[in-house]
Amino acid sequence: MAIEVTDKNFDEVVIKSNKPVIVDFWATWCGPCRMIAPIMDEIGEEYKDKAVVTKLDVDKNPRTTFKYGIRNIPAVFFFKNGQIADKQIGTTSKSKFIAKLEALLK
To answer: Annotated catalytic, 33?
Structure first.
């Protein structure tokens, strides 16, 4: 299950994590975002011991959205040691999301 992050807890949950973190930047009105939501939840469950999977509503969290220059959603960012390590703008397959995550686990 993906964890909801906000402007208030983003640094604590994402930047300070000792595990790789996926951040799914999304919005309720975004159809493609709703398409990948179940994939993010599955990855969150499958990798719960190795990584953290989060989602951030861009409409409710403008500070973080602006900070990372989010202009198109879904935007999935992969963080490692508090830094952006990879990105996926738009939808893709579960296997491609997992491949990007696996690269961070090595």
So the answer is: yes
Query: Which entry of 33, 39, 56, 75 is annotated as an active-site residue?
Result: 33
The dihedral region occupied by 93, where left means phi > 0, alpha psi between -120 and 50, and beta the remainder, is beta
30 is catalytic: yes
Of 30, 52, 75, 104, the catalytic one is 30
User: Residue 79: which CATH number?
Assistant: 3.40.30.10
Predicted pLDDT of residue 94: 97
Query: Count of CB atoms within 10 A of residue 12's CB?
Result: 10
Q: Is the whole-model pTM more than 0.85?
A: yes
pLDDT, tens digit, for every residue of 6-33?
A: 999 999 999 999 999 999 999 999 999 9
Domain count, the chain: 1
Based on DSSP, count helices (H) and strands (E) in the chain, helices before strands: 4, 5
